Amino acid sequence: MKSMAIRGELAFDRSLIIPDNNGNAGSGKAKGRFSMTLDKRNDPATSLYAYNNNEAMTGTHMMFGFDMDPFQVTGLAGWTFEPAQDAYLDLSDLENPDQMQFPEGYNTQAIYGSDPALITTWRGVFIKNIEIKSPKEFTNGTRRGAFAQNIIFDPTLTMDIGVSGLLETGDGNLSGWGFSIDTFKIEIVQNDFISGGLYGGINPPITGDGDYLNYKAILTKEENNQFEFTAIALPDSLISVPISLAKAALCPNSYVQFTMGENGAQVGTFLKGQMVIDVMEKFAIFY
To answer: Among residues 204, 209, 231, which one has the least CA distance to residue 220?
Structure first.
């Protein structure tokens, strides 16, 4: 025998992740496929994970290439996670995948007990690079992605990621409001949600096209296991109002508040301040 191939498929429980169908929730289970080819004609020195006749290498040493369909984290509706090709199914006692890191809070002692050297006995799926796309309801056109690293299934889910530039100013739409996403963060450690958030700008319809209020949205996980973003955007400068040459100076207690979750987006405002119209003579209108 000169070579042998091993191929198979993994299905993930829907309580963890679900299939993604172009931003929509898919049916069935999210799946991934693993494969490995053993060829006695290949030089073991060319592989990070090859067996090199080392008698100290006891146990199982199988490192599979892994590819996976796009998925959504259960409860985080519309957010697409699309794995790149550099992923692994690790069934090896000798090595962990190259560049894999366990985030703070991960219970590594459950793997190695009192001997840190046994960390290499970890087994599971490691996705080195993954592309993240915001919900299609937030965009005016093509969904733009950004890459994150270090996703772990074992079989719990672990991700500690932050990506930038998902939605540029002018590209986003939140229930008819201009919307941008500068930063998206989410941290889940062994199925426990730790924290998350969105940071960017929102453009109230009464203002000029270029006047965005900065927002910070906090991500929470509700009792029904659904995620929800809640944000308040506060003005920090003059904003334009599209009538003649007007400017409005908003009071500090003005705000734009919005939530995004399983029931879509809800947006509300409380805007109070002083409007100044620049004509031949300046005069003030209070409202």
So the answer is: 231
| CA–CA distance, 179 with 167 (Å, rounded to integer) | 8
232-268 residue pLDDT tens: 776 666 555 555 555 655 555 555 677 777 776 777 6
pTM of the model: 0.81
Rg of the chain taking only CA atoms, in angstroms: 25
| Pairs from 109-116 (Cβ < 8 Å, separation ≥ 24) | none
Angle at 286 between CA 283 and CA 287, to 5 degrees: 150
Distance CA 89, CA 83 (A): 13
Instruction: Provide CB contacts within 8 A for 134, sequence distance 6+.
Output: 78, 79, 143, 144, 166, 167, 172, 181, 184
Q: Tell which wins on pLDDT, 95 or 238.
A: 95
- Give φ, ψ of 153 to 5 degrees: -120, 130
Range of the domain at 270: 3-286
Cβ(4)–Cβ(12) below 8 Å: no
Q: How are beta strands 192-203 and 177-189 bridged, if at all?
A: antiparallel
Count of domains observed in the chain: 1
